[in-house]
Amino acid sequence: MTTPIQLAEQLSTTTLLRFATAGSVDDGKSTLVGRLLHDSKSVLTDQLEAVEDASRKRGQEAPDLALLTDGLRAEREQGITIDVAYRYFATTRRRFILADTPGHVQYTRNMVTGASTAELAVVLVDARNGVVEQTRRHAAVAALLRVPHVVLAVNKMDLVGYAEPVFAAIAEEFTAYAASLGVPEITAIPISALAGDNVVEPSAHMDWYGGPTVLEHLETVPVSHDLTACHARFPVQYVIRPQTAEHPDYRGYAGQIAAGVFRVGEPVTVLPSGRTSTIAGIDLLGDSVDIAWAPQSVTVRLADDIDVSRGDLIAPSDDAPAVTQDVEATVCHVADQPLTVGQRVLIKHTTRTVKAIVKDIPSRLTLDDLSQHPAPGQLVANDIGRVVVRTAEPLALDAYADSRRTGSFLLIDPADGTTLSAGMAGASFAAVTRAPAPAGDDAEWDF
């Protein structure tokens, strides 16, 4: 039997997988997540007792495992997921952060939130209904967010007699659609979340299926998004100047390395100013080190006394991103108030926040068929569309396709700080025709 100390040692050497679940209403997402937690022994005794008690009060003989994730009162009453529910669990092979995202079309923005940092997305399909509009929508969002691995979980196989032809037809249709969006890897698994078939343990009813269970695939899928292999980027969060007798001339730039590796002696460029220097030292947890990598939090010291402040980006001189004041991106609008052409906003990119104006909204994406609705004039809640934003100061943006960390940004309402849209710089998976930007008076923002 594995002792707690042995388990802790094993977990310290395991990798971390962030994944999200999505699917239409009543496809069984919460039941799948509950089954995954229950069968992998990741549920505490008091949690299970609370679920059993709640299930009895609702007249259910067996525990409703969906209640392990549906925590809001409104969710339990309606039997649907509304908010993003995060769960943390682990096996001896891997640690997991799971985002159980809503299935209803009006909560598309919540799926974007949950899947934005995911390395894998599990898309559920009811075997009785097959691929529906919302299935295509979720596949499109996963492709748009550059999620590298997608699992098609064909659920409720027990209700179609565990028939292989039903599964094969759904898997073929979904795989063709997702591949056309550019999803690099698709794995189809037939399951019954309610009965536990192929979730943690192999099913005794589907001997025609020879692939992995859901948990086995989650434990073994390669986590290919290695931040240390990306372009090195260090957003400055805070300037440290003790000015004490012990450290009279110390000047360090603190923050978290967003991507890549930095080394002492490496020539670097500070953006957006473009000034250059060399890394003189790197301090990590009170000690000086010669090398540091993402996502470590460090303090960088430069050889030259140049002007660096919060919001600046330090990058290798031979691999520095271009700076721009014209941002073309795909955004998911998350606020209830619309985003309109000519609207003044703040754009937050890493640790830098600058004023900006929405110069154009060339198109809105119709996720049902991936068609573009030209010149919509505005984006409302849950809309996904192309925008052109003019910033008051230059930004060092990477393309989202190259870096999910430094290619993403937020549009914020300057009046009250409300997040308006989540943006992904550069091209989306669909071709976009840009409409001419309307003229406007931008004098108030001094561009």
Query: Helix/strand/pairing class, anyone?
Result: alpha+beta
Shape: globular
Oligomer: single chain
- The radius of gyration is 24 Å
Helix content: 10-25%
Distance between the termini: 66 Å
Count of runs of 4 or more consecutive helical residues:
8
Number of beta strands = 25
Sheet having the most strands: 8 strands, antiparallel
Q: What do the pLDDT scores average to?
A: 84
Enumerate the spans where pLDDT stays under 50 for 5 or more consecutive residues: 4-12, 71-82, 430-447
User: Which range does the strand content fall in?
Assistant: 25-35%
Describe this structure in words.
Helix content is 19%, strand content 34%. It contains eight helices and 25 strands. It has helices at 4-12, 29-39, 45-57, 73-78, 108-115, 133-144, 164-180, 214-220; strands at 15-23, 85-90, 94-100, 120-126, 149-155, 185-190, 234-235, 238-240, 252-256, 261-263, 267-271, 275-284, 287-289, 291-293, 297-302, 313-316, 323-333, 339-340, 344-349, 352-366, 371-374, 378-379, 384-396, 408-412, 419-425. β5, α7 (164-180) and β6 (185-190) form a beta-alpha-beta unit. The longest helix is centred in the middle third of the chain and has 17 residues, at 164-180. It is globular. The model is unreliable at 4-12, 71-82 and 430-447 (pLDDT under 50).
